[in-house]
Structure formats: structure tokens, C-alpha cells
Amino acid sequence: MNKKILIKNGTVVTASDTFKADILIEGEKVKAIGQNLQEKPDQEFDAQGCYVFPGGIDAHTHLDLPFMGTSSSDDFETGTLAALHGGTTSIIDFAFQSKKKSLKEGLAAWHEKAKGKAVGDYAFHMAVTDFNSETAKEIKELIQKEGVTSFKTFMAYKGAIMIDDQQMIALMNECKKWGGLVTVHAENGDLVDSLIQSSREVGNLAPRFHALTRPEIVESEATGRALDLAYSGNHPIYIVHMTCESALNRVREATKRNQQVLVETCVQYLLLDDSLYDLPNFEGSKWVMSPPLRKKKDQDALWKGINQNLVHTVATDHCPFCMDQKKMGIDDFSKIPNGAPGIENRMELMFSEGVLKNRISLNQYVAINCTAPAKIFGLYPQKGTIAVGSDADIVLFDPKKKHVITQETQHMRCDYSSYEGWEVTGKVRTVFLRGNLAIDQGKAFIGKGFGKFIPRKPFSQSNPF
Fold first, then answer.
1. Contacting residues for 146 by C-beta, under 8 A, at least 6 apart
2. HSE-CB of 97 using CA atoms within 13 angstroms
3. Ramachandran quadrant class, 284 (left: phi over 0; alpha: psi -120 to 50; beta: rest)
4. What b/e string do you get for 322-340 counting C-beta neighbours within 10 Å, with b at 16 or more?
5. Measured between alpha carbons, how far is 456 from 68 in angstroms, rounded to an integer?
6. Is residue 462 pLDDT above 90, yes or no?
7. CA distance linking residue 154 with residue 246, whole number of Å
8. Rounded CA gap, 425 and 223, in Å?
């Protein structure tokens, strides 16, 4: 018999509505939403004074990722557990194709990493690093049989994972046949390599030169080029981790020709700036990521972009490396593993810095963190909202509780925090995953292997934008 849970007295918030209601969960699904529900549940939770949000969806994570001679420090167990503590119930991670190997082999390798380990639910994007006539034949099956419906391309990291424009055009054309969505890491890889070489030749090797060798033009040029390639074939396109005003302006121009463009930014680009790279004693290496942190004016542009509906989702690009890993580049910034922790902090920071500072509304908060990622990536309405029949992925959120982010109290497997000492108002109190109590008052009630792989619908069938 399915267990019944009743959440009473909370304020339910979706992407479109805010209202007082009780929620009845039966088994893994939301059974009823209404005023003063009279069910006799097996368990009851009083959400008085709390917002009741859908579980967060982080559409950009890298768990257990081999990269730059090491691997990201969170695996699927520690990473998804940390996500749950922060109110994120589902992630979309990236399965990578290896050079001269098939997409299916890459996907199988990532299934192996996650299966039996993940605590929260997960799906996969497919990172395409070697697109050719054989790879093209796999796209249909990945979309229709494997539930992997989005395909990541890199315009940077030449010689490792970068593909050229011809390959990207071919991938877009293949995805169009079957309803797939191409997503793009937009940085001009050749320009980056040239700038890095010039910097190294004159002995500029400190962490700050990571940002200086990846200036705005690197991102804006690649963004514009990707948009033009997509426009030429009437393809939808999703730009990942946008960081700067000039790249956003390329999107703004593309919308004037009625192009379908979807844009993601990340918490760090909304809240942190490039002054951190100037910290002494190699501290700046903590924020070496690609693209790098930008200026205050870029933060402002991205917040405004959310309100202008030019930026649709906020993710983390969670790819943590501990300091001994970062020190691989202590004598050369180009050897510092790119990435930082953040999967646990997104929901609380976006509330404290977004909603409470009047940068976004409460409903926008749910849209960018939960609903839009679900709609864009074929998880809606199973995930991303609170509705009868949806998965009971629910967060009880105390909007008044103050706390400070520290490495000591985080659950991510990393020996520093990107937001050390940050004072936050608003805290995740209780999390349900598919109707099961997952987190309550900082304590986990589910563990390794509870998370499920969630196959996704094709973009052509699910996208309402």
C-alpha cells in the first residue's frame, strides 16, 4: 500500500502561482492539492511559515568527470546528496563521448558511474566530442530509446573535446530529424589557445591570467557564431553558462530575427566577480573555471536578462576540485583544473540574493531553478512543478532562517567553498524526493542508490517556450 504524507499550512509556489494549500502525497506522486485536506495520512508535516517549492533541477553538473589529468572530486553519491541538502532533487549531468568511441559507449560509462550511487534523481546530456557519419547514426536511438535528448558541443578545449563548425552543423541537422536539442559551450578555442600561449611566453602564469586569456570577446564571438549556425538551419539552440553582457547582446540581436534561443547562466556569474583572481597565495585558483568570472556590470546584465526573458535557467556547472588538485597549476594557470563547487548552494543563494533583493520575483525563482529546466529538457510535468500527478519532489523552505555558508558545514566533497562566509537568509528545511522524506533539518533519510535515472522526452515534444 502506498504511503500517504500530508504537508499542511504551507505557501505553495510554482512558476505561475502563489497560494496557501495542503499537499497530499501518495506513493511517489502528488495526489491532491487543496485547502484543509482531511485525509488521514501515515505522516504529517507542518509547513507553517514555509514556502513549498518544487524540487530544484540543476541542468548543468559534472560529477566524477575525468578532466585535465584528474577527476572532479564529487561522485554521484556525494554530489547528488549535497544537491538534496540544498533543495535540488534532480540533476542533468554530462556523459562524454571519448575520441574514436561511440556515443553509446560514453553513455554506458556514465550510467556505470551513477547506477547504485546516486542519492538524487538524474538524467544525462550527451557531450559529443567526435561527430562523424557513424556517430550520426546513434542520435535517433539515444533520443527515442535512451531518453537522452540533448547534445552538448564544445567550441573550446581544442585537441581534447572541441568540435569544429562543420561537425556542429551536421549534429544540428541530425538532431532536428528526431527532436533533439543542441547545447553549446561558447568560447572561441583558437583565440583562447593563442592568448594562453602569448601569456605563457612572457611569464604571466598566475591564476588571474586565466581570466585575462579568456576575455569577453572569446565568449561573445563564439556565441554569435553558434547563433548564426543555428539560425542558418532554423535550429533551436541552448547556450550554457553565459557570463557576460556582450554575449547576452548577441542573443538580444538574435531575438530580433525571431530566432529561438535558450540561455543558461550560473549562480557564480550572478554573484561573484573577477577581483577574486587577484587574491594572494594561489587563492584565486579556487574560481578558475571556464568561462571565467566577469565584471560587476556583467552580473547586472544577467540579472536584467532574467527579467527580460533572455536568460531562462540558472544552473551551477558544479565541477569541484580540491586544492591539491588545483595546485597542479601552481606554476602555470593553464594547468589548473577548471571548475568549482556550487551544487548545494544554488537554491538558497538565489532566494537570498535574488528574491529578497528584489532582483527576481518568487515565481521567477521557481521558473529559473525548477520549471524552465524541466520544460526545456523534457522532464515536465513529471518534474519541475507541484501538480496532481507530478513526482512528489518538494522542498519546504524557511524564508527567514539566517545562516552562513562555510566549507565546514557543506556536504560537497571539496576542501573549500566558493561562497565562504556568505551570509544567507532562507534555508532548506525539508526535502521530499518522489514522495520519500530525503532531508529534514540537515539530516539525510535516504542514501546511496536511491536516485533514479529519468529518461527525457524529445525537445520537439516538450518545449513550450
1. 107, 455
2. 27
3. alpha
4. beebbebbeeebbebbbbb
5. 30
6. no
7. 19
8. 35
155, 187 contact by CB (below 8 A): yes
Residue 157's alpha-carbon distances to 66, 136, 212, 260, in angstroms, are 14, 22, 17, 26
pLDDT tens across 26-78, in order? 999 999 999 999 889 999 999 999 999 999 999 999 999 998 889 999 999 99
Cα distance between residue 315 and residue 265, in whole Å: 6
Which uninterrupted H or E stretch holds 208? helix 208-212
**C-alpha gyration radius of the chain:** 21
Q: How much is the pLDDT for 39?
A: 87
The strand pair at 18-26 and 29-34 is best described as: antiparallel
User: How far is 289 from 339, CA to CA, in rounded Å?
Assistant: 4
Length of the chain: 465
Give the C-alpha separation, 83 to 99, whole Å: 31
Instruction: Calculate helix-pair angle for 165-178, 216-232, nearest 10 degrees.
Output: 50
- CA geometry: angle at 246 spanning 240 and 249, to 5°? 85
For residue 381, whether the previous peptide bond is cis, meaning omega lies within 30 degrees of 0, is: yes
Band of the pLDDT at 461, cuts 50, 70, 90? low
Does position 306 have pLDDT exceeding 60, yes or no?
A: yes
pLDDT, tens digit (0-9, with 9 covering 90-100), for 173-212: 999 999 999 999 999 999 999 999 999 999 999 999 999 9
Residue 278 has pLDDT above 90, yes or no: yes
Determine the pLDDT at residue 465. 57
**Residue 97: is it exposed, middle or buried by C-beta count within 10 angstroms (0-12/13-18/19+)?**
buried
The share of the chain scoring above pLDDT 70, in percent, equals 99
Burial of residue 286 (number of CB atoms within 10 Å: 0-12, 13-18, 19+): buried
CB-based burial, 389-426: b 16+ in 10 Å, e otherwise: ebbbbbbbbbbeeeeebeeeebbbbbbbbbbeebebbb
Which residues are paired to 169 by β-bridges? none
Q: Quick check: 125 and 152 in contact, CB under 8 A?
A: yes
